[in-house]
């Protein structure tokens, strides 16, 4: 690729970021205006006098035309002002800084488990194509990808918590350990390690494994299926046939030549799966009473707390955008053909 063409590609990518951000902000703003929920009544209550309702509407600027409201909304966003939550009485930014680390911790553990299990299973299924091993792996993946995640979560609670008693109950930690370690990062396992409190750490890990395992199984199914499809295409390539003809070992052919060729594509799969976990943990967090962004978003929606709903939605959209940009940058760095 010539230098001019490479600069043109980078310029196009750079230009797409503000356009995407503008579209995300616009959609978020319109969602808040078309929802059949009156944010004024959510603040003052449905029994407030009409003069109080109208005064609050004027103070919020909701009496102005939509374009003016949008300009005000963008201006506040540029100042980092997401509004104030009616439910918690805190700023939405402070709430997100408090709740998002719990979701980040849950999704990160889930994607690590899913990748460490799903990728080898996908490779094994491709190498053993058509055998009993391949069929078993495909059935496991089909079940994990087809069952609704709330069903998996409820089954997990029923089996491992209610029946076998192997896992602790819902929540992020036992109440006896509340506020026992200082919240440095708001990642409970990390804060427990920083404080050197191994009892809190073990309790946090025990509570984390069950919801993370549910999300990991759901994601592992997709990762394994995509890995299998990529590997089947790679194993039929001429370079793999040539490597085998040279007498290279099966492990070297599979992992260096075939898998090495698909690793770049897997980065995109993993990045988008991770973004999906950060956004799609809503149901899992609700079932397991996990105090993350998903539960915060659900409770805010039920309480008609639109500032909180729009702030959480915007964070999810920004997360998707950031991970897409990361995947694109990694693709360009690792694939010599793109370079």
Task: Label this structure with key terms.
about 350 residues, mainly alpha, MetI-like fold, 2 domains, 14 helices, globular
* Strand coverage percent: under 5%
**Class by SSE composition:** mainly alpha
Mass-distribution shape = globular
Estimate the helix proportion, in percent. over 70%
Order of helices and strands: HHHHHHHHHHHHHH
Mean pLDDT: 83
Second rung of CATH, namely the architecture of the largest domain = Orthogonal Bundle
Largest sheet, in brief, is:
none
Task: Return the domain count.
Answer: 2
Number of strands: 0
Instruction: Tell me the quaternary state.
Output: single chain
Radius of gyration: 24 Å
* CATH classification class of the largest domain: Mainly Alpha
List low-pLDDT spans: none
Helices and strands, with pairings:
Elements: H1 3-34, H2 39-44, H3 50-60, H4 66-78, H5 92-127, H6 132-146, H7 149-163, H8 188-195, H9 198-235, H10 238-245, H11 250-280, H12 282-287, H13 293-302, H14 306-334
Helix pairs in contact: 1-14, 5-6, 5-9, 5-11, 5-14, 6-9, 7-9, 8-9, 9-11, 10-11, 11-14, 13-14
Question: Could you characterize the architecture of this molecule?
Answer:
- By secondary structure, this protein is mostly helical.
- It folds into two domains: 3-78; 93-334, MetI-like fold, CATH 1.10.3720.10.
- The protein has 14 helices and no strands.
- It has helices spanning 3-34, 39-44, 50-60, 66-78, 92-127, 132-146, 149-163, 188-195, 198-235, 238-245, 250-280, 282-287, 293-302, 306-334.
- The longest helix is centred in the middle third of the chain and has 38 residues, at 198-235.
- The protein is globular.
- 32% of the residues are buried.
- The mean pLDDT is 83.
């Amino acid at each position: 690729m010539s230098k001019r063409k490479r600069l043109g590609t980078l310029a196009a990518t750079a230009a797409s970021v503000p356009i995407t951000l503008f579209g995300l902000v616009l959609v978020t703003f319109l969602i808040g205006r078309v929802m059949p929920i009156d944010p004024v009544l959510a603040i003052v209550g449905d029994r407030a006098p009409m003069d109080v309702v109208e005064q609050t509407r004027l103070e919020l600027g909701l009496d102005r035309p939509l374009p003016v409201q949008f300009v005000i909304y963008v201006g506040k966003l540029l100042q980092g002002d997401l509004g104030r939550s009616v439910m918690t009485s805190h700023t939405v930014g402070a709430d997100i800084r408090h709740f998002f680390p719990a979701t980040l911790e849950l999704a990160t553990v889930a994607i690590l488990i899913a990748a460490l299990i799903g990728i080898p299973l996908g490779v094994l299924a491709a190498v053993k194509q058509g055998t009993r091993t391949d069929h078993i792996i495909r059935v496991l993946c089909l079940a994990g990808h087809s069952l609704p995640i709330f069903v998996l979560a409820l089954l997990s609670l029923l089996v491992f918590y209610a029946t076998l008693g192997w896992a602790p109950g819902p929540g992020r930690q036992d109440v006896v350990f509340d506020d026992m370690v200082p919240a440095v990062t708001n990642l409970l396992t990390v804060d427990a390690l920083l404080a050197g409190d191994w009892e809190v750490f073990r309790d946090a890990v025990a509570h984390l494994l069950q919801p993370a395992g549910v999300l990991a199984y759901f994601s592992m199914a997709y990762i394994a299926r995509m890995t299998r499809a990529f590997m089947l295409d790679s194993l039929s390539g001429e370079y793999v046939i040539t490597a085998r003809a040279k007498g290279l070992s099966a492990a070297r052919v599979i992992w260096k030549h075939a898998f090495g060729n698909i690793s770049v594509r897997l980065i995109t799969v993993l990045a988008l799966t991770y973004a999906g976990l950060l956004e799609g943990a809503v149901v899992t967090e609700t079932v397991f009473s996990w105090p993350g962004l998903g539960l915060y978003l659900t409770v805010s929606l039920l309480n008609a707390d639109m500032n909180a709903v729009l702030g959480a939605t915007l964070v999810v959209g920004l997360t998707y955008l950031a991970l897409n940009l990361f995947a694109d940058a990694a693709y360009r760095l690792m694939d010599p053909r793109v370079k």
